[in-house]
Known about the structure:
Blueprint: E1 6-7, E2 12-14, E3 17-20, E4 30-36, E5 42-50, E6 53-58, E7 70-78, E8 80-83, E9 91-93, E10 109-112, E11 129-131, H1 135-140, E12 143-144, E13 151-153, H2 159-169, E14 171-172, E15 180-189, H3 191-204, E16 210-216, H4 221-240, E17 245-251, H5 253-266, H6 280-288, E18 292-293, E19 300-308, H7 317-325, E20 328-332, H8 334-338, E21 345-352, H9 368-392, H10 399-416, H11 426-437, H12 450-456
Amino acid sequence: xxxxxxxxxxxxxxxxxxxxxxxxxxxxxxxxxxxxxxxxxxxxxxxxxxxxxxxxxxxxxxxxxxxxxxxxxxxxxxxxxxxxxxxxxxxxxxxxxxxxxxxxxxxxxxxxxxxxxxxxxxxxxxxxxxxxxxxxxxxxxxxxxxxxxxxxxxxxxxxxxxxxxxxxxxxxxxxxxxxxxxxxxxxxxxxxxxxxxxxxxxxxxxxxxxxxxxxxxxxxxxxxxxxxxxxxxxxxxxxxxxxxxxxxxxxxxxxxxxxxxxxxxxxxxxxxxxxxxxxxxxxxxxxxxxxxxxxxxxxxxxxxxxxxxxxxxxxxxxxxxxxxxxxxxxxxxxxxxxxxxxxxxxxxxxxxxxxxxxxxxxxxxxxxxxxxxxxxxxxxxxxxxxxxxxxxxxxxxxxxxxxxxxxxxxxxxxxxxxxxxxxxxxxxxxxxxxxxxxxxxxxxxxxxxxxxxxxxxxx
Length: 459
């Protein structure tokens, strides 16, 4: 049996990085253990190999380390998490260590957090929907099992409140008896935000179906790079080993990308757009593409990442690249937020590309797709009429245009707006949709058949 070597001298320390020379038989991604004299032991991960020189990133940071006060031992294993059914209801830090006082997780299964790519041939096409209890999402941007649907937000918008509400309320479609779980991940959040999430899930009783990963803003930056991978590894275990339908809610992915940029800068890599590494696209894809369904397994992973757009710029590299990989987006509006409308979802630039395959007869209701198309069409026309009203005044609009203005106000205040603790099932949401559509003359409902209008119009 080969004796484990311990290296007593560190060549150099640069930010979160440690350089060692004369190392033999090391592997990329291997975990190292750093024993600090008169201090707490730390973990690191090898991120570069050049001949016998190793560069490792230290999860807890290199503060307090020197070339002579620490020793390094190579474990010969990648970063792994121990998995057990007992993880449900538990809370962990950014690299999977319990932080809820419930003790360590015991189990025989160890999972590499880097995961395994899903073979495209093994993928099952996503069907059926996950009900979030939020009218504008369930009716117009329906979340389908196995989908990747990001929420594009901005600084100061209530994306944390929306994330917590979705976790509390999310469930499988009403007729399903399948097992459901949520993996909630907070990346780079403040302490009061972390406390808000914990209290929210505990008070609502949702905590029993939730696995939480909390990476705080004052945690070492390197931990942040591993946090989403720990969460997705947990989701893979729950979905493909235990048969759960798992919803992964992750906020804020922009903090992850900022950490990636900082580590890339420390590694002196050539930067790309706005200083982000050139591999940002493939790195994000390695996260997003872990969501989906398999022909050979019962469970599914549905991914709902939340990212804040710097300066509300949807063309920024993070939302821009995310849009190429995912199947739609939910966009939050600063204007609606300023009008005290919660959740401030701007439905016009929002889109769910898989929505058509998980709604309608057999899933929601037969008329749902047509009602959604009609709402989009009418609300789009409202924007044009509002622009005209700013020029000539609302009183000089035609009677039909004034009805459209009334529809727009009702759509935002009655359909889009709902309380933080209000959960609406799909039938309730469609009822409200018909109430606001009935403000318009029947002749304007040109996306609906005469039979549907006669059956549901409330005028």
